[in-house]
Amino acid sequence: MNYVTLGKIINVRGLKGEVKILTSTDFSKLRYKVGNELILENEDTHDVVTVTVAHHVQVASFDFVIFNEIKDVDTANKYRGYYVQYPVDKLQKLDDQLYYYEVIGMKVYEGNEYRGKVVDLTSAGKTTFLVVNSLLNQRIQIPFISAFVKSVNTTDKIVILNKWEGLFDED
User: Fold this and answer.
1) 66 CA to centre of own chain
2) For residue 64, what pLDDT is reported?
3) What's the CATH number for 100-161?
């Protein structure tokens, strides 16, 4: 089964094992709904634990979650640094939008010329940027807006950019 990352456990709050998650999802209330099964994964050791949401509160860009399987602060502390994962097959379809995981890995073309691959997405204010690893191994941030992005083909995993002089200094 494939998963998408919801965030990372960065701290513990209280004595009952509540974890503080730095969130990277726009759908916290839906993802951390009581009863949902999630995966906690350690990026370094690849240790994986299945947990069930018992309680959720969102404060700013943080989610505070109690899992049925984590009963106290000592157990919760063991999961600091773990990523919280959600099953891709349970994601709802978005109208005219894409999830980040759908864009990462796409090939990037400027007109007909291959320019690199999307390795990440990042946001600054209300603008999302494609982070492209170019042919010269440079990381270039391109605004994910129609002035720069001509089309996105999810079937072939291709992003076509409008031509912008100087966007890629590889010529």
Assistant:
1) 21
2) 97
3) 2.30.30.240
**Chain position carrying tokens 């509540």:** 18
Domain boundaries of the chain, sorted by first residue: 3-90, 100-161
CA–CA dist 106, 16 (Å, integer): 42
Tokens of 101: 């995981």
pLDDT in tens, 86-102: 887 776 666 666 767 77
Q: Which CATH class is domain 3-90?
A: mainly beta
Average pLDDT, the chain: 87
Work out whether the CA dihedral 29, 145, 159, 156 comes out positive or negative: positive
